[in-house]
Amino acid sequence: MEGNAICRRVAPTRRISTRATRTLAVFLIGIGLIGCRQSPREPVTLRYTYSWMEDRPKTRALLQQFTQETEIRVKGISVPENTRDYLELARKLLKDGSGADLVNIDLIWSPILEPDLIDLRPYLGAEISLLEPQLLSSYTVNGKLVAVPFNVPLGALEYRTDLLREYGYDHPPRTWNELESMADRIQTGERAKGTKDFWGYVWQGADGEALTCNALEWQVAAGGGRIIEEDRTISVNNPAAIWAWQRAKHWIGWISPPGVVAYRELDSMQVFDSGRAAFNRIWFLTPMTRRGQAHQIGWRSSLPVVKTGFSRMPGGAGGSAGTLGGTGTAVSAHSTHRQEAIALLRFQLHALMQDGGKDNGSSGPVQAEFSEPPSILDSRVSPVASNQRASIVARPSVAAGSAYKQVSRAYIDAVRSVLTGQRGAPEAAAELEKRLIEITGFSAGPPKTLDKMAP
Questions:
Q1: How far is residue 424's CA from residue 429's CA, in Å, rounded to a whole number?
Q2: 3-class secondary structure per residue, the chain
Q3: pTM for the model
Q4: Confidence of residue 295 (pLDDT cuts 50, 70, 90)
Q5: 413 pLDDT exceeds 70?
Q6: How confident is the model at residue 84 (pLDDT cuts 50, 70, 90)?
Q7: Which of 41, 95, 169, 320 stands the most exposed, by the fewest C-beta atoms within 10 Å?
Q8: What distance in Å separates the CA atoms of residue 330 and residue 51, rounded to the nearest whole number?
């Protein structure tokens, strides 16, 4: 009986326990739902480091559109104007796991930053197949595509269309000999009218990467090679390269101002835009795909006020060469938001390919004359109206790998020593060859002609 009594006393306790458990479960679920409503999940914010040249209204508008469509926020981190300072900051931000999700990098820094960047091919196969293959080579390190092009500028010639016609020319110079002749004649005529500070040709001779681009164009056009060839031979100490440097030295004080050795892009554009030069070396943007025609001006936020035309760079015995420049977008290997970063990169690529070079990023379409403008389309094919072969020339960043910064520094020092009269060109070329052998461990070799250059 005691047993039965115990059973009778315990039974109500069990029923109460069950009801309490159910009540507690409902209570906890309610608290959870209330908590979810009060603390919504924070949206993802991507940190995007891009160069100062890309901090434009058009870029910011594109990022805002991405956020509206995906609810993924983008925090832009602008970086210094100086390319070398930018490189050091990019390296620091990538090494810091919380520094950046996406990085806008100069194509020449691909080998240096490669360890901290992901391979984009597995994620963007469809988009990559639409891009010009030769644009990807400078962003490919050991078979790994570390970035995709964000913009594609090529070295080009800007000229005064009104002055060319006034002095009897029906086309821009197709060779460096023609440029010298035209620049000298126009300069003499304009100075006789009273513009005493008028110059025939302005370009970038300052201590910086732009000089590497300019001098490489002179050297290739003369048949002097590409500093370091694709087979990793050093081709700077040859008669054609030496002659190209000597020719540029001869321009200074003749058709180019003495101060050109301190000019950067903005300096030469200011002289040209003010009506005080006939020709200017400039960056010209070209589409990334085979759709559309190139008609964008790099670096400018507004159009020049003078009547302007654009063409490829003049040529010589080695053809016409325009240096390939540009920046690409990469994704950090340390990003905790890789999929969101890929989504932004895909969004950017689609927008850029659809744009196809419709405007110059300022007030509207460029109202200018185009005469055989540089383009990624049909490069290395002789233009119909010219006997000069056209070539897009990449700086030897991939061949030099992580040593490219030292290679470019040594090349700039050698060329500037010739331009400023500190050393003769033969001496500078011989010393540069020795220095590049020390830096890279490569051997010296003959320059490759355009016919032997890979596209």
A1: 9
A2: CHHHHHHHHHHHHHHHHHHHHHHHHHHHHHHHHHHHHHCCCCCCEEEEEECHHHCCHHHHHHHHHHHHHHCCEEEEEECCCCHHHHHHHHHHHHHCCCCCCEEEEEHHHHHHHHHHECCCCCCCHHHHCCCCHHHHHHHEECCEECCEEEECEEEEEEEEHHHHHHCCCCCCCCEHHHHHHHHHHHHHHHHHCCCCCCEEEECCCCCCHHHHHHHHHHHHHCCCCCEECCCCEEECCCHHHHHHHHHHHHHECCCECHHHHHCCHHHHHHHHHCCCEEEEEEEEECCCCCCCCCCEECCCCCCCCCCEEEEECCEECCEEEEEECCEEEEEECCCCCHHHHHHHHHHHHHHHHHHCCCCCCCCCCCCCEEECCCCCCCCCCCCCCCCCCEEEECCCHHHHHHHHHHHHHHHHHHHHHHHCCCCCHHHHHHHHHHHHHHHHCCEECCCCCHHHCCC
A3: 0.82
A4: low
A5: yes
A6: low
A7: 41
A8: 13
With both helix axes pointing from N to C terminus, report the angle between 57-70 and 338-355 in degrees, rounded to the nearest 10.
130
Q: Give me the count of residues in the chain.
A: 455
